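Request: Not sure, any thoughts?
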Amino acid sequence: MKRSAGVLLSVTSLPSRYGIGCFDRTAYDFVDWLAAAGQTYWQILPLGPTSFGSSDDSPYQAYSAFAGNPYFISLDDLVAEGVLTRAECDAADFGSDPAKVSYEKLHENRLALLRRAYERSDISKNGEYQQFLRDNSWWLADYALFMAVKGFFGGQPWNQWPQDIRLHWGFALDYYRRELYFDVEFQQYLQFKFFQQWGRLKAYANSKHIQIIGDIPIYVSPDSADVWAHPELFQLDENNRPRAIAGCPPDAFAAEGQIWGNPLYRWDYHRSTGYDWWISRLWANFRLYDVIRIDHFRGFDEYFSVPCGSKNALSGHWEKGPGMDFFWQVRRRLGDRQLIAEDLGLMTDSVRWLVRDSGYPNMKVLQFAFDVKDTGAGNDYLPHNYNNNCVVYTGTHDNETMAGWLTGLDAQTMTLVRDYLGDWHTPAEKLCGRMISLAMMSAADTCIVPIQDHLGLDNGARMNQPSTVGKNWRWRMAADALTPELQRELLTVTRRYGRLNWDNFR
């Protein structure tokens, strides 16, 4: 990765009409804004389909490792196609707060509009749709049936379905495909529109010399088509229930560790297949993105296993993952691809060796740099310890905003920050720009800054607070936030530290 810069912004956070960011004009405008600001990358969060209107629709708990989120389908495009009317879209209730996503309202009202669009579309005679079905049947058939059956049973997780369909028996599959034919076709239609619209947006971004950094969660949701249709891939018992689940040990985010609840992989089985499922997953995602950030990279070295039913992660233990054997197979079968190793959390020598041997750039987060117990050569997050082959972030989607973090620092940590910056006068709430410059001037080949930090927003704009529910993944950017002044400031700092994307200035 050449010396460059980019912005982290979830698609959900775009200021689109109708309740959530999507693949509409605002996404194209954001690409234009990035290009004029000299950026190279737009980093997004996972695009998978999320839950049935829960309080938190986490993109890291998707119903499929391959499908896309239908909430991202542009209603404006469907109006232009003539399958929805503007009045219908304007009349729908998507919530009253333009700064927050209401997933409950989206599930209730946006899906109803999408169903109406499907019923008005003569999809069976669409040649592009038929080709899409042929090209994607290897994952789409199971996913569309999974979602149709889930709807039939009122959104219940698949492990609460009747035994025949819960255990994926052939005669039950045939029965539900016949009985729920139009519900299955609706799900296929949603995926067709998602991939059609995303393909156009990505092609536009690439035409503007903006590359997309996508995000793959290492684990899949326990309530997903992947676990339901392919139990052999996971550590399940004879009734397809998890024996152990994923989590992480106690850390700065959670004193009792975190229970994520995801089923763990049977790495011995994956190894015996040459990692076919994982290779297919990466191949499919490289059709969506130019660069892939693999979440929880350290899980390929060792993964944290928590006994199923545990109340916290204190009873968990580490197990060995596939290590370099997996990444050798990735290179052999997919060639050299651009991957980012998200190696945050508890670091061990074996994790460091895996990152080094893989050759992929790893992540540095400035908010982790100012540890009063570690201010020297052993602190991997202090910029003077970086090499070139890394990606520096002011913070991630799991962190506080930079402005929120700075204003909440204790006196000792603030002293470390000011001493490192050589700045004893700028008010704490104004130091955000200095921290962005610190990231930009570092040796890291790539610098990614969340849009909240460019905007100087406080923790009211935080995207996710781990181990909490009811307030995450909801933040949306104001429609007038991306001003020409901010664009010029970003262009200036990007040029100053040699990160300018010259392709848009020739």
In short: The mean pLDDT is 94. The chain has one domain: 4-111+214-234+261-303+322-504.
